[in-house]
Write a structure and sequence with these properties.
This protein has about 400 residues and is an alpha+beta fold. Helices cover about 20% and strands about 40% of the residues. It has 9 helices and 23 strands. The protein has a 7-stranded mixed beta sheet with strand order 15-23-20-16-19-18-17. The chain has a 6-stranded antiparallel barrel with strand order 5-6-9-8-7-10. The longest helix is centred in the middle third of the chain and has 22 residues.
Amino acid sequence: MEKNFVAGQAGGTHVTNAVLTTELAEKGAPGLMQHAIDSEIVKIRPMATPLDQISRLGHVRNVDAMEVDYYSVDTREDTTSAVSAKTLSTEDGITQATLKVSDPSILEVSETFTWIDDDGTRHTGYVGAKTDDGLTIFSDASGASLPQVGTQIIRMGRAATQLDVQTPQFAVLPKKNTNFCQIFKMQIEQSVIMRMSHKEIGWNFTDQQEAAIYDMRLGMEKQFLFGHKMKIYDPLKGEQVMLTQGIWEQAGKEMRVNVAKLDGNALVDLLREAFTENSGSRRKILLAGSELITALNKIDAQRVITARDQVTMWGIDFSEIISKFGRLYVVFSDIFDAMGMPSNGIIIDPEYIQKHIFIPFHAETLDLRGSGQRNTEAMVLTEASCLTLRYPEAHTRVIG
């Protein structure tokens, strides 16, 4: 132990015969004296890096490996289409028939389903048995009202008899995916002479730290959005470099819009695509390029869709679009313009974004003077992390 340190009764450390300095504090209580930027990182220009900002203040998980395995669960399909239907018998207005569908796995015994016939009448069916020849069904339809070729069959709830104790088993297995944590680094350095020199403005090392963090976060934002998962062997360094996959590739849904003709009706279609056919939340975020934002701003407010000027969440100022489907928080992202995609965007569900951290963001001081390398003061910023989408179908790529 350091000669000036004395162990306390409860495990603490006491300093004797010395003035308490930051160096002694770091030795006696590692981590106690943190660089200010550790706690201030989310306060540095959050509007420029909305995805990184949201992920830092959302679901964060520390991991013990650079390669992250994660599981995503989708909902069961609700629809299939009819291939053929054959009447077997009719009694008391109930028709027994054999129904073949394009995907028999959608329906199980004791489940009900519905369809609309050519006259626009809705009918209901019940699956009594399931064989290789098709489904044995009971319904309120007969003859031409039975599902014809191509008729959409929509799965509904199960129906049991009074004496039923069991039903066909149901289980769901998540899909395994993998992503790589990427090591992000940024080194800040200035000479001692530079620090000592008089400057016309108060530009110091802390200002450089802030600028470096901003630049580092911009790079991370691009990687978290559009990165492609890769392992590269660097022959010069003799080491492997791991690149993380962005959420653009992970999103499960995609919608194309004509930015030049984007109107209220097209916006409703966009909201419908974003909020339906998944079990995501009713509050989602649109990160978009300048052309898509411009098109949205030109849409006149309607009675069924309202817009609020500003909503502040996660330290970010959003424009809010309120619809019957859900609330969409819109923010302009410079990254889409920088990537040559000003008419594109991505709708994300913040509840289903997971940030995995192998090395938490931290700043480490380099003693280049003590090692005889350079007469400078230097600091290295480091983080090893990646983003994953736990439910891909809750996120939508918007391509203009």
